[in-house]
Amino acid sequence: MARSRRVLAPVAGGLLVALLGVVVARDGAPFDVDAALHRWMLEHRTPVWTSVLTEVTRTGYVVLPYLAAGVAGALTVVGAGRSDATARLTPRLVAGVAAGAVVGVAALVLGRLLAAVLRTTVGRPRPARADMTYVVPGPGIPSGHATVSALAAIALAAAVWPYCRNAVLRGVAVGVLVLWVVAVGVSRVYLGMHWVSDVVAGWLFAAVLCLWGLPPLAAALRRLRPGAAGNA
Fold this sequence. Notes:
The longest helix is centred in the middle third of the chain and has 32 residues, at about 90-120. By secondary structure, this protein is an all-alpha fold. Helix 4 (about 65-80) runs parallel beside helix 6 (about 145-160) and helix 5 runs antiparallel to helix 8 (about 195-220). The chain has eight helices and no strands.
């Protein structure tokens, strides 16, 4: 796993830097695939799907990601498969779980702020306001919704993974989270808020943050477990 991270982290980072570099070099102009998918979405937009995807897009930025991040932090503190006395519900364990949840939410807030700083730095314009189902101001890359939902999903997947005892459960858990992240990304393009490359940049940015940040964060959270080394 550590070896995979050492390979994937620079790959994701390189792809993100390359994408943002090209965007800056083009003065923010959309790619051909951006324009083509944007036109297709506008031509196939319907009131029903607009309503559905408006609700989907809300799940990617408001309550659900922070709930997922909090649960991920709490589960990391608890630890899967523990049978020792410290696995029992004790005041110390409750305090550790609460702290883990707070840290998980705080980490997601930090990721959201970093995405906002990067978005402001690059300054790429969004699609025309007339094409948006509701007006969203400010620059567009990386997509905040794509970044936040991907951060929450990756964190929750990593935390839930040890609790899933077989490949089927792991596949279902990861599959549901992937579908949610993709649905949120699609909703941003469908509703006219972002170019598809904005969404891809958000996913890459989330991957970079998680590949570099999750391992040390998880190690710190595990030290909150009762009986953990250095937490006597």
